[in-house]
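User: Please run a holo structure prediction.
Assistant: Happy to. Please share the sequence and the ligand.
User: Here you go; the ligand is magnesium ion.
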Amino acid sequence: MSTAAAEHAPGPGSADGIAARARGLTKAYGSGETTVLALDSVDVDIARGRFTAVMGPSGSGKSTLMHCLAGLDNVSAGQVWLGDTEITGLKDRELTRLRRDRIGFMFQSFNLIPTLNAAENITLPMDIAGKKPDDKWLDQVIDTLGLRDRLEHRPSQLSGGQQQRVACARALASRPELIFADEPTGNLDSRAGLEVLGFLREAVDQLGQTVVMVTHDPGAAAHSDLVLFLGDGRIVDEMERPTAEAVLERMRLFTGGNPQTPGFDVIRSQFGDGEPTSPEER
Ligand SMILES: Nc1ncnc2c1ncn2[C@@H]1O[C@H](COP(=O)(O)OP(=O)(O)OP(=O)(O)O)[C@@H](O)[C@H]1O
Ligand SMILES: [Mg+2]
């Protein structure tokens, strides 16, 4: 279906090279006085075949953005497209099928099934879909992530980092065209973290996959092609071809306080002077 995308007139969601797109994406939780506006009319284009990082303070809406782009959460207002397909308004069944066929998701919490071993967890989405894994690809994923000798273990028998890697393998197993990863290196030591980042990078460069990754780590963000900075439910800045130094510098710029930059105070509260600030202290 999507292979013919280039022949389509470039409509809102079908423009060449756009893997996911949102317009006016708004997400509110709760109602009345307790409403939290997690996303405030976000416009974003996720380029196909690129590695996009999403950064921003805790609570700025990063996970919500990924969930809404992946069709895992419904939106309060606005539209979302995956490739040609507008997913806002799709029926649950259609959305489930589309997600299953085209998207891999690495959640902030791993969401592994405790009663299944690592190997079973990795292939679970494909088993549910009745699809046969590409064994060569699966082997490559398992070896790159260093899971070969852990395949028989259940999640409770694995370290946090190993569970993270199983979740990573699960997201990659079906070779989805679009991978969303919510802090995939958050629980890994630096070596394993670098491996996961290298693997995601390779998936983009060698296999033409599209990766969107939330991270708090400027070093991790430096593996991406583009960083989107989120503050208070809005995209407040972006940076092409980031380096860790430039990302850090950009954070300092926010800290330095350009009052014209929406959400800068929120960003300062996290990145401030390197000292964590609790909401009470603000
Ligand atoms: N299910 C929910 N019910 C109510 N509020 C929610 C829910 N999920 C998220 N929120 C709120 O929406 C805002 C954005 O949350 P989100 O999880 O997207 O932040 P985040 O940027 O991913 O933060 P973190 O870096 O801590 O993971 C927060 O204020 C959060 O409290
Ligand atoms: Mg989050």
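Residues 62-63, 108, 182 surround magnesium ion (ligand 2) (CB under 6 Å).
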